[in-house]
Amino acid sequence: MKAKQLAQETMPIEDPGHEWPESMSPFRKVATIRILQQEFDSDKQKEFGENLSFTPWHALPEHRPLGGVNRARKVVYRAISLFRHEYNKTPRVEPASWEI
Questions:
Q1: Is 11:24 a contact under the CB 8 Å cutoff?
Q2: Which residue segment(s) compose the domain that 42 sits in?
Q3: Would residue 2 count as lying in a domain?
Q4: Is residue 51 part of a domain?
Q5: Cα–Cα dist 32/86, whole Å
Q6: Which of 24, 34, 41, 99 is the most exposed place for a label (fewest CB within 10 A)?
């Protein structure tokens, strides 16, 4: 059996209920991220944070989420973001800088 076919059978992306064998898909640490403690207490900072939207699809194509569960998440994340921005009466735009 070819390696790609074996991987598709033992690690199917479209079946979130199928456990992947660690022997075929071992954990690999690729980085450690350290973020210094920060304070977000000003009204401007709170407003800035409230108007941000998170999406794992804002990534390089090879890093985007795969599978049906993630396709469903994409729809839900977008709907929540649209609702929140409409409710807050703010435009849904990407920040242009770190300045708050």
A1: yes
A2: 20-88
A3: no
A4: yes
A5: 36
A6: 34
pLDDT in tens, the chain (100 residues): 677 777 788 888 888 888 888 998 899 999 999 999 988 788 988 888 888 888 888 889 998 899 999 999 999 999 999 999 999 899 988 887 777 7
Domains identified in the chain, total number: 1
Q: How far apart (Å, rounded) are the C-alpha atoms in residues 12 and 4?
A: 11
Q: Could you tell me if residue 76 is inside a domain?
A: yes
* CA gap 92, 58 in Å, rounded: 14
Within 11-67, residue ranges assigned H as helices are: 43-50
81: Cβ contacts below 8 Å, ≥ 6 apart: 53, 55, 92
Note the pTM of the prediction, 2 decimals.
Answer: 0.69
Instruction: List Cβ neighbours of 91 (8 Å cut-off, separation of 6 or more).
Output: 85
Integer Cα distance of 70 and 65 in angstroms = 6
Query: Identity (one letter) of the amino acid at 12?
Result: P
Residue type, 22: E
